[in-house]
Amino acid sequence: AFMLEVFGIHKHYDHPSGKVQVLKGIDLKVNSGDVVAIVGPSGAGKSTLLHIMGGLDRPAEGQVRFDDEDLYRLNENKRAQVRNQKFGFIFQFYHLLPEFTALENVILPALVEKNADLDAVKAKAVKLLDKVGLSQRYEHKPHELSGGEQQRVAIARALINEPKVIFCDEPTGNLDSESGKGVIDLLMELNQKNKQTLVIVTHDESIAKRSHRVVPMRDGKLQ
User: Fold this and answer.
1) Would you call 74 helix, strand, or coil by DSSP?
2) What gap in Å lies between CA 154 and CA 144, rounded to an integer?
3) Bridge partners (DSSP) listed for residue 218
């Protein structure tokens, strides 16, 4: 069975000059364990599609089915639960909370669960930070970390709840090529070792080259 399926997705924004069509009927299937790169020029609708697939932004029309549930038929709480437990998100700008340490940033998504065992969560967060090469950085705040390090904290944070799908929006867009390569290596390793499904919006040729599938997008449609 497909894990993530998108049918007939349309999205528009209201603009003084009329409706701006951003997505014009998108169908896409992502298998469990796939690495899918969505590529195309700026303004093609790639990020909008990613946000809709990840349950962050409601489509005007169409369905997003994950494990045979229609995400946008669920109530807001249920959908938030799926996002928190089944999905991980990595964005171009790391969205770390500036006043918290690396360790605290990684722990936060796991604390949404009412009866989270703090010690267990902390131990897991430490393991994840070690895994992404930040064993010396647990107590550092984001401003004390380089861009590449901040993105690794964001990756560890995305992994804390052992998501089935990790959605990445230009994960290397803010990094120099060496840090970027480190982040790509890490994502590919997660896919190989944990069979985590990756959906990656990117301009980065090297990510596209290493994906199982490249999905080109232009003007709100898949090519």
Assistant:
1) coil
2) 15
3) 221
